[in-house]
UniProtKB/TrEMBL annotation:
Alphabetical list of Gene3D superfamilies matching this protein: 6.10.250.2430
One Pfam family from the record: CBFB_NFYA
Chief location: nucleus
Function statement: Component of the sequence-specific heterotrimeric transcription factor (NF-Y) which specifically recognizes a 5'-CCAAT-3' box motif found in the promoters of its target genes.
UniProt GO cellular component terms: nucleus
The protein's name: Transcriptional activator HAP2
GO function terms (MF aspect): DNA binding; DNA-binding transcription factor activity
Keywords: DNA-binding, Nucleus, Transcription, Transcription regulation
Protein source organism: Lasiosphaeria hispida
Amino acid sequence: PTESEESPLYVNAKQFDRILKRRVARQQLEESLTSKGRKPYLHESRHKQAMRRPRGPGGRFLTAVKVEAQK
């Protein structure tokens, strides 16, 4: 066992208060991140337009010049 497991670590009252406050904040952040069911995109019309655009091998959108070169 390490030294911290054998004996308690003493901190002053202000430090302890801040430690507790940080624990609560972390817990609230974790709950908010896991509970939200976020939509994959915000605007349906923008999503549809993006899905119609031609893409390159890496998944990026092709420029107008490259689209013309393919035709």
